[in-house]
Amino acid sequence: MSLFIVRRLLLAIPALFGLVLLTFILIHAVPGDPAAVLAGDQATPQQIQALREHYGFDRPILEQFIRYVSQLASGSLGVSYMTQRQISTEIIERMPATFELTLFAMTLATAIGIPLGVISAYFHNRWLDHVLRIISIGGLAIASFWLAIMLQFTFSMELDLLPVHGRLSQGLTPPPFVTGMIVIDSLMAGRLDLFRDAFAHLILPGFALAVAPLATIMRFTRAAVLSTLRREYVFYERAVGYPRLVLMGKYVLRNSLVTPVTQIGLLLGAILGSAVVIEAIFDWPGLGSYAVLSIATADYQATLAVVLIVGCVYALINILVDLVHAAVDPRILEQL
Amino acid sequence: MRLGQVILTLFLAGTIIGSPARAADYQRNEILNWGEGAADTLDPHTTRSTTDVTAKINLYDTLYRYDGLDLVPSIATGHTVSDDGLTWTFNLRKGVKFHSGSELTAEDVVYSFRRLIGMKQAPAAPFWPILKSENISALDQSTVRMVLDRPYAPFLAAIPLVGIVDKKLVESHVSGNDWAATWVAGNDAGSGPYRAEPDGFRPSQISKLTWFPDYFLPFPAHPIKQVNITTIKEATTLALALLKGEVDATDTRIGAESIARIRKGENVKVSADESMRTFVLTMNNARPPFDNIHFRKAISYAFDYDGFINKLREGTVVRNPGPIPQNLWGNPKDLVPYKYDLTKAKEELELARKDGVDFSRPLTVYGFTNTRDTYLSMQLLQSNLRPLGLKVEIKDTFFPNLASMAANQSTAPDMWFHWVSAFFIDPSNWIGEMYDSQFHGTWKGSAFYKNEKVDALLRQAIVLNDKEKRRALYEEASRLIVADAPALWIYNAIEYRGLNKRVDGYKFSPVGSGADFRLMSLSQ
Q: Would the CB atoms of A42 and B126 count as touching at under 8 Å?
């Protein structure tokens, strides 16, 4: 199995190289000149040219690419043109925020989606299934940014129950940095007040982000459980009178989990995408808002760094999904 | 779980969520929560955005500063300028202290201007072409002399762009020839009324400032001792945060809907100040069919200005007749703006046709991604030009892309909507950099307009120091330019800012948009 992991990790390298190459080409295919931004509104053409030369934007693309890759190889993501800070520092500051949000949303989606999917399958084509189907289709159809704004209006404005934006209330200092996820760090520091505040901030964006994957997980679980229910062994177990809960929980659900688990893996990647919008609405200082910022300011190296990091996460999740498959289904383990 | 346990859990969850947050060290009426957004950089010599300007005017001092529209001495006590307009001598105030404790001297001013010019970034733009590093010198502890390469009338107006940094402190962080760019971007080397907390700054996220009680100008009786600057990108979220009291002020770009919502709220008010941010549709005068004056005039008559301003923008902006903001000197008071008049537009188009202009190809218009105003105006333009038989394709992209496209005659859009903001308050900021042909190759010069008479007038105006003579030149140039119709000048912005009623002393300025925390106090 460790051989499998090593092989998969090595295979990820050319994929990531391809990703960087493609992103690099795409960025340079559209017009966009960081020198023009740095030089500002008042600049003369000469000043813009001087900045271009200073940063090497005037060099051939191939040369810029080679320079970028060798910089990556030496372990540096580069310096942001706009903030003059190390991009790695900025990403380390922001990545935990995105992880906190996406993990919370996925936990929510899984913890609710799978049981609802099972219930839906068990009562299939009865009224409960219809109700859940309407809810799940609604969840898929709803625009997450609209839902996010409606949640803000309802729970922050009208009911005044939850905060509107950000990760912590004004004036609170985050707990000492351990994982960077405030909810966890505050517990480790024994600061229940911070935990409460951070958790309250997490609920609305987490829920807004969770709705679409929740619906997907529910639909996939339902389909998988339904097809398992039609298997002969289930028919047999039913016939001999296995208790319903044991039948569903132990024999049916476990045999149906491969599809939802694959989905959860893929959704974790997709959710990083929708997090861009949700982060913007709730001012969640994560990678998504950083990506938007870097694109809007033509901060190439920062954009490339975000793409690279998300690519790495995606690759890791894919490996992890395979491992979870193996844990769920021993037959797959033998093939690894 | 039994029902009792469920209720208990819900109750606990309720107390967790419902309990209030803790207060910080200062009193509530000493802490201002400013929602305009944290700066990208604290470096006063790379300032680009309004949020950067907010950081600069509070952390740093300048020789002169803007008080509303007026230039007033700040750490300079005054200046003299030679008759040829080349040699500028500034006398400095004595006893001004940096946050580090050392005294601000002429050496720091010289170093700051040299650093600015050496780094060549945005605020260097007005100085770079006319001032060489070696021509900046300290005559003594409190006198600085700068000798320009050629006369440049807006020189003094541009002086507030340059924050004065603590030379000794900055030099201690220099490595190689980097001007300590990384260090200054995240740290405070200033002498302004506020200082940046070392760990309180995360670019475009948060910024925490505390007051500098030793500042040389007075604070109000109850000064603001701490400012938390937060970034709220979505206008709706920002308006909600203001209404909930989480922030005391919004930015000035939150849009008519949010303003209307704020107006209905309790404990909040809206300030409205006419700014100097003009909204323009620039046409590429070098590319057919826009190289024909009748064709450009046809477009100028075909846009429904009133509909845009009064219906789509609900009267939250004012019509601007020409290249210069209508509230600035140099804009002729009798200048007649183009009006929406389809008959005239058709007549002009007919004249263009007689000139042999071929306007069968679709025209493209660009706006900024995610910017409502440019979408509205692009759609309006599209529907306004349809009766003339002109097809318009709508496109959008981010500012950096548009800026570099617009800088090149062959890639510049046929037409694009954009704003021109006040970097400094002088007509040359608008008319000079947009319609003097020596600025072809910058996004501001993207009309690629060339009129030798206008060039002569603008180049004469830029070297004269007599304001009245300059006014006459700019007024004449404005009339000529409007007659040539190289662009559509649509509106001058009014800046609306939602404020909590507890904020006193807020004073707007077109430069820095009024985020001068030293002048403010909180009533509760």
A: yes
What is the C-alpha to C-alpha distance for residues A281 and A209, in angstroms, rounded to an integer?
A: 11
User: B61-190: what fold?
Assistant: Dipeptide-binding Protein; domain 1 (3.90.76)
Neighbours of B83 (CB within 10 A): 7
Asked if the structure places residue A227 within a domain, the reply is: yes
Q: How many domains does chain A have?
A: 1
Residue type, B262: I
A280 falls within a domain:
yes
Asked whether the beta carbons of residue A43 and residue B442 sit closer than 8 angstroms, the reply is: yes
Nearest to A84 among B41, B246, B401 (CB): B41
Q: Tally the residues of chain B.
A: 524
Q: Selecting from 3.40.190.10, 3.20.20.70, 3.90.650.10, 3.30.565.10, what CATH number does the domain B24-41+192-267+501-524 have?
A: 3.40.190.10
Which of B16, B31, B400 is opposite residue A36, by nearest beta carbon? B400
CB B399 within 8 A of CB B368: yes
CATH code of the domain in which A137 resides = 1.10.3720.10
CB contact under 8 A, B240 and A295: no
Domain spanning B274-494, CATH class: alpha beta
Q: CB burial class (10 A; 0-12, 13-18, 19+) of residue B20?
A: exposed
Please list, in sequence order, all residues whose beta carbon lies within 8 angstroms of the beta carbon of residue A229, skipping any fewer than 6 positions away.
Answer: A121, A122, A252
DSSP β-bridge partners for residue B332? none
> CA–CA separation, B521 vs B31, rounded Å?
9
Give the angle B262-B263-B264 at the CA atoms, nearest 5°: 90
Length of chain A: 336
Angle ∠(A302,A308,A313) on CA atoms, nearest 5:
125
- Coil/strand/helix, residue B71: strand
Quick one: tokens of B450? 């060339």
Q: Which of residues 172-191 of B touch A (CB under 8 A)?
A: 181-182, 185-186
Domain that holds residue A210: 92-287
Domain parsing of chain B, residue ranges: 24-41+192-267+501-524, 61-190, 274-494
Q: For A50, which of B120, B233, B429 is closest by C-beta distance?
A: B120
CB contact under 8 A, A289 and B237: no
Q: Do the domain assignments include residue A201?
A: yes
Q: Is the sign of the CA dihedral B323, B329, B335, B340 positive or negative?
A: positive
- The residue of chain B nearest to residue A283, with distances taken between CA atoms, is B232
Q: What angle do CA A40, A41, A43 make, to 5 degrees?
A: 70
Radius of gyration of chain B measured on its C-alpha atoms:
25
Global pTM reads: 0.82
Looking up tokens 């002969």, which residue turns up?
A232
Both structure tokens of A276: 């861009």
Residue B73, beta-bridge partner list: B64
- Cβ-Cβ contacts under 8 Å, A82 against chain B: 40-41, 48, 203
Best to test chain B binding among A30, A76, A84 (most B CBs inside 10 Å): A84
For residue A215, is it within any domain?
yes
Per-residue pLDDT of chain B (524 residues; tens, 9 = 90+): 444 454 445 444 444 444 443 344 788 899 999 999 999 999 999 998 889 999 999 999 999 999 888 899 999 999 999 999 999 999 999 999 999 999 999 999 999 999 999 998 989 988 988 999 999 999 999 999 999 999 999 999 999 999 999 999 999 999 888 899 999 999 999 999 999 987 889 888 889 999 999 999 999 999 999 999 988 877 888 898 899 888 999 998 887 888 888 999 989 999 999 999 999 999 999 999 999 999 999 999 999 999 999 998 888 899 999 999 999 999 999 999 999 999 999 999 999 999 999 989 999 999 988 788 889 999 999 999 999 999 999 999 888 788 888 888 999 999 999 999 888 899 999 999 999 999 898 889 999 999 999 999 999 999 988 899 999 999 999 999 999 999 999 999 999 999 999 999 999 888 777 889 999 999 98
